[in-house]
Amino acid sequence: MKRSFADILGDVAALQRKKVEAKLPGWADVDGLEFPDALCLEQCSGTAAAIHKASFIPEGCRIADLTGGLGVDSWAFSRRASAVLYFERNAVLQEAAARNFIRLGADGIVTVNAEVSPEGGPWLQALREFKPDWIYADPARRDGLGKKVFLLEDCRPDIATLLPLLYENAGNILLKLSPMADISMLANRFGGHLRELHVVGLGGEVKELLCLLSAQEREGWTVSVEDAAGGTQAFSFNPGEEAAAEAVFHGPEGLEGLLLHEPTAPMMKAGAFKLPCSRFGMEKLGSSTHLYVAPSAIPEAGGLFKEFRIMEVVPLNKASLKEIGKKYPRAEVSAKGIPMSSEELRTRTGCRTGSDIHVFGCGIAGGKYLIAAARQ
Predict the structure, then answer these.
(1) How many CB atoms lie within 10 A of CB 36?
(2) SS in 3 state form for the chain?
(3) Are 38 and 108 in contact (CB under 8 A)?
(4) How far apart are CA 220 and CA 44, in angstroms?
(5) What radius of gyration, in Å, describes the C-alpha atoms of the chain?
(6) I need a labelling partner for 262 at 20 to 30 A (CA). Which of 82, 220, 234, 313 fits?
(7) Amino acid 314: pLDDT
């Protein structure tokens, strides 16, 4: 039976509503909100991430959003700021956002249809008249062909070129950058302007990097790991602390019964590989094996690590690979600090997914071992 055009449109609307409900809780219940195209909904911040970003700005400040888009970030900023200036180069999207702000009851947001570029123009005049305390930007990380890019100068607008101009017009800059961006590269690029770098996770995955920059240069900056939904303890340090820290190692003997702590993706991204030993009293399994052990759970590390109870440890060889596969036919598999990929290790053990058991192939005290552990 042929479906009517109205039925097809109804299905499209229902699918969009589900996406809005999942990404923007609360927005789906507001009548008349406009979403001009699927791309703007795909690229916008989720409400949890937007509200988390807004928590970095002081209440009562004035903030300019250079990359307005659907307006979720500007909406979140308006809940704390006294005034928000929103820029968007797409006139259709800018007009839709302006109407959405009214329907959402988001007061104090002025929208401007203008392209932000190093050449200046109307956007710069509006910025100077607004006199912001803070400037926010989430540059587009795709080129003209839709391919993902990671370097600052390849994003749009070109933040790398814009920065001197931004420092002239606001004391503080908040940048949302690709989760794939290299932290050391960013630190070198921003120099003494970098104050804080936040690795923001959600559900154990890295969702975004937030860089807080100051127009005034000085030495020293910090890295922080946090969860946008607030379900994880924050972990902050400065790079000098990690460089000076000394790892404490545990050999292969006596591991059975201990809790194995595997850093989440945000912790790995932050690059704190030795500090967990001194901060949490953990012991590391190997210099390039980023797995840690402790006798029991560590509440202050909650959400920063996945926890497993170690059941057995055996040397990694042909026989043990087959034996582990037979003993734990269903298990997750990871290779850590050994010259073998996780996929190769899975193939050689024959383990299939679908269990709370996890088999780690890892380097410990110069040797290679298999650890079978149960997720806690």
Answers:
(1) 15
(2) CCCCHHHHHHHHHHHHHHHHHHHCCCHHHCCCCCCCCHHHHHHCCCHHHHHHHHCCCCCCCEEEECCCCCCHHHHHHHCCCCEEEEEECCHHHHHHHHHHHHHHCCCCEEEEECCCCCCCCHHHHHHHHHCCCEEEECCECECCCCCECCCHHHCECCHHHHHHHHHHHCCEEEEEECCCCCHHHHHHHHHHHEEEEEEEEECCEEEEEEEEEECCCCCCCEEEEEECCCCCCCEEECHHHHHHCCCCECCCCCCCCCEEEEECHHHHHHCCCCHHHHHHCCEEEECCEEEEEECCCCHHHCCCEEEEEEEEEEECCHHHHHHHHHHCCECEEEEECCCCCHHHHHHHHCCECCCCEEEEEEEECCEEEEEEEEEC
(3) no
(4) 32
(5) 24
(6) 220
(7) 97
Rounded to the nearest 10 degrees, the angle between the axes of helix 159-169 and helix 122-130 is: 30
Residue with tokens 């990690």: 242
- Whether residue 265 contacts residue 201, with contact meaning beta carbons closer than 8 Å, is answered with yes
Residue 116 contacts residue 126 (beta carbons within 8 Å): no
Nearest alpha carbon to residue 69 among 53, 46, 51, 48 = 46
pLDDT tens for each residue of 173-222: 999 998 889 999 999 999 999 999 999 988 888 988 999 999 999 999 99
Beta bridge partners of 294: 259
* Mean pLDDT value of segment 65-88: 97
pLDDT for 4: 45
Residue holding tokens 């979720």? 72
28: exposed, middle or buried (C-beta count within 10 Å: 0-12, 13-18, 19+)?
middle
Identify the structural domains of the chain with CATH numbers, from first to last.
31-232 (3.40.50.150), 243-375 (3.30.2130)
Structure pTM? 0.89
Write b or e for each residue in 175-186: b if 16 or more Cβ atoms lie within 10 A of its Cβ, otherwise e.
bbbbbebebeeb
Residue 155 CB: number of other CB atoms within 10 A?
23
The tokens describing 53, both together, are 């970003």
